[in-house]
Amino acid sequence: MRLLGYEGGRTVEADRPRPYVQQHYPRINIAVCNTFSMSKTARPTAVGSPAQADVAAFQTAARDLVGVALRSLDALAGQVSLPQFRLLLAVNDLGRAPSSQVAHALGLGASSVTRLADRLHASGHLVRGTDAAHRSVVTLELSARGRELVAQVLAWRQQELERILDRLGPEQRAATAAGLRAFHQVIGDDYTRDLHGPLPL
Description:
Layout: H1 20-24, H2 52-71, H3 82-94, E1 97-98, H4 99-106, H5 110-123, E2 126-130, E3 138-142, H6 144-165, H7 170-187
Antiparallel strand pairs: 1-3, 2-3
Helix pairs in contact: 4-5
């Protein structure tokens, strides 16, 4: 299994061309680290439990999907920083929302969100407002420029997934999609709802 390091660290695969996200966000270590290795001798599994090969396949799939999400950040082209884009992505999901709700969604303090929002408001990606019922509440909403930037990143991600899936046969695609839907159904929507992290996925 390959893990992502969020702080410090250098890219292990230094001989490969570095994509935009690695050049401009060096604190993200998307270098791959084989921190877990499978034993050459397959471990016995209980009847009805998943085989180690099945678990390994899902570990690889998780790494691959995270890779697609990270590569989609190339579409930012330096317009905003990664933390700023995370805020834009959160507001895109929430719609017009109080800054406190955005802070909770990102797992950040109110002051951190205020600083990010100030920069995004100045760059024209975010609109700040107030709640008509509670004038002290600051609301955040994407501007047309902010919506366009988020749409560009998500569109790149969708196109990339379509390109990859096009390399599978129709039966393989259908089986893969059915498996992922079943996987999500078992996990449920709440599994990742309260997770906070430095990456927009």
